[in-house]
Amino acid sequence: MDVATRHTHTLRDDGIGERISRNHYLAEPALRPGELAFREAACHPRGTIYRAPADARAVAMALEHPRHSICGLSAVAVYGLRFFADCCDTTLHGLVKRTVEATQFTPRITRVAWTRTWTVFFQNHPFLVSEPALAVAEAITEIRSRVHMWAVPQIDGWSPEEIRTIQLLDAVRRFFGLECREIVKASKSRVNQRWMQKVIRHSSVLADSPKETEMRLLCASVCAGLGIKLSEQVPLIAGGKIVTVFDLAIEELKIGIMYDGEHHLQRKQRDRDSRINVESSLQGWVIIRVTAGTLASSASYLKRMIEMRR
Question: Which Gene3D superfamilies does the entry link to (predicted)?
Fold first, then answer.
């Protein structure tokens, strides 16, 4: 497997660019925006600011630690998941006496005698990475122990660690095609299995982004409290053709809920959204369109809409 990923192809060891590890540098086009990195550092346990994406840092530090393996959330990033890890420490396994905590330019190294790994390559250099299901289980352990944190909303009935874990599960199921049974098997002896079953039950393979996961959990909390069924991926059909598929819907009340990401600001997408809104209204549906800026209010909007339509 070749991991010349979205950012690692610009890794340098000649001092040109911004330093991202002891001996490696990254060119400016591949760095994360400074404002974003600074904002996300507020959730880091030590306030560390990472402008270098997680996959680039992981590969650079693995090259500098040839007898170690990339693990946990860093491994998930190397495999191509574009969420979560960019603001988190790089994690490696190695034969150390005790855990070595990360700095801005060095990895967090945890002791392990043996682990299941894949051999991957970067510019013909081989190194080891925890196999995918195991990497997810390791990441969940890190999330539960608050080694890794990122911003999540407050949701009744859920801890921040549970929300982050469900986001991760949704993403690896959706984009890696991992099965729950694989992750559960890999998590045994690592994660409390009663806790694991709880988050697995509330995970979904249908979420396209972590924000959609947050929206689903927020809306599900409202519906559970009101005794109303919330469905995922409900199609709206006109003339025998699918007009759109609601991310979430309360079918009995004809309430559709959709998460609009950045691409919905584009003209072509806005025109399509307008047609969807009109067709939905003609069929008696009302749509709650949620954005990053309105996500925190989505539960209250939904509750008010349910009260109006009951």
Answer: VSR Endonuclease
Closest to 168 (Cα-Cα) out of 216, 204, 116: 204
Handedness of CA 227, 158, 155, 73 (dihedral sign): negative
Question: Which of 225, 171, 180 is CA-nearest to residue 198?
Answer: 180
Rounded-to-integer distance, Cα 215 and Cα 248, Å: 9
Residue type, 276: I
Give the span between the Cα atoms of 154 and 140, in whole angstroms.
19
Q: Which amino acid is at 251?
A: E
For 135-169, b where at least 16 C-beta lie within 10 A, e where not — what string? bbbbbbbbbbeebbbbebbebeebebbbbbbbbbb
Asked whether the beta carbons of 219 and 256 are under 8 A apart, the reply is no
Which pLDDT value is given to residue 29? 84
Residue 227 neighbours by CB under 8 Å, 6+ apart: none
Q: pLDDT tens digits, residue range 120-156?
A: 888 888 889 999 999 999 999 999 999 999 999 999 8
At residue 217 the predicted structure's pLDDT band, cuts being 50, 70 and 90, is very high
Read off the pLDDT of residues 190-204 as tens digits, 9 standing for 90 and up: 999 999 999 999 999
CA distances from 49 to 86, 178, 276 (A): 10, 31, 41
Partners of residue 232 on adjacent β-strands: 248
Taking residues 226-233, report their average pLDDT: 95
pLDDT exceeds 80 at position 4: no
Rounded to 5°, the CA angle 8-14-15 comes to 95
Domain boundaries, the chain: 4-202, 210-308
Q: What are phi and psi of 57, to 5 degrees?
A: -65, -40
